[in-house]
Amino acid sequence: MFEEIVTEEEVKFNDLEKKIFKFVCNFGCLILKLILESYDRKLMKTRDKKKYRHKGLRKNTIKTIMGEVEYQRVMYEIEENGVHKTVYLLDEKLQINVNGKVSENLIEKVVEIVPITDAYRKAETVIKETTNATLSFEWIRKITIDVGDKIARKEKEERKALSKGQLIAGLKQITALFEEADGLWINLQGRDRKERLDKQEEKCKKKNKEFNPKQKVKTELKLHVMYEGWKKYDKRHSLVNKQCIAGIMKPKEIKELRDARVFEQYDEKNIKLRVTNGDGARWTKGITAKGGVYQKDQFHIMQEIVRDVPKEYQNIIKELVNTKQYEKIQQAIEGLKYELGGEYEAIKKLNKLQSYLSSGLERYQDLVEIPEAPEGIEYRNMGTQESQIFSKLKKRFCSGRKGFSEHGANALAKVCVLSEKFSLEDIETSIPIDTSIEDWIKKIEENVKRNITLKDKFLTTEKPPKESIGAHISHTENKLVKEILKYQEISELKAIF
User: What is the pTM assigned to this prediction?
Assistant: First the structure.
């Protein structure tokens, strides 16, 4: 073994470490191959030979974190409902679920690395250096989009289940729930960019305006963050049970998904405080929970002041905001207009600032009664969204001259906001739903159909004498009731009628 690894008289420790790592990984691949083939032979000997017909050996190759594993396993033919199909007992027994011949462990590694690198090519390098696997950046992109699509489908299922009343209500007790929302504008490329430009060109033609075919085309990635409060670790505070929603989504979709996750986790009727912190955009206001409080993010307030107010006057407006003298802000801005002598561009910016600062400046602590926080949790000033935007999305989407398709950006965003506890099983697992209402309705429908059939049977098989039709109908109806009661409980009949 030593001679296989050390081939030079002098070798550096770092190089030796890498060689040993590669050797151990290759050895691990060999062991995995032997175990798989051995177990496959055992399944072959113990199978139901009448059901599973041996159709020969087939090769399979799986890329793993240890490297590429090539092995042979038996293919069988079975008959189900008159249809012949092929199966691999080994794959079924070991639950070998692969995506494009890539193991789940390696996929999880890809999903872990992609959000912390600024390009798929860099992710390719990191995976090569930290595992014994080799994946091209195209393959990494495909895996990322596939996982993102699965997340999107599951989110759609959650929203659908909520609308149908199928979700199982959560039981966790909390007194407050904090939410923050913001967006990130990214460049579009390819077909999506062309379609947007074509639409823009049509609008310009109708309005007789000049059209610039080289203009940038952007779309907004939305990010929603939800948490229960803050917990102090040494000198820092971290968000408690932070959950994120991200993607190129409609505000309605974000709201529905947020509502579904709140319903699934918490005992909603005991949540006394709901606060949404946003940049003032219409969609961030629109997703505010019913009965909740909306406030403008402090960072964005200060950002607007810096953008719209001449540098020498900025501190005046900032001080009024910081000291909560909101009633004086509009007056101060009017004074600045006079001070600037009515200069057009300056007045235009100040008018925009006046509109922005006209509402939503109060902090939630000043608007509602704050409930007592659970032990170990604090309720603080909000304003984590800009940090979340940077750490979750901006580093990945806005470094360099990047462009994305809407589909690719949406999938990547969903992968970027997954927690560090990510597991493919979380995505593949079905959403627990409550089917009791559907079952009850189905039972009632079946009962109604059966009762109608019985009624038709009794009314058509017995022919009453013409002279006593009234009495006969009464007699028939009594027989009908007696017969129905053989099949139905009185309580069920009440539900039906």
Answer: 0.80
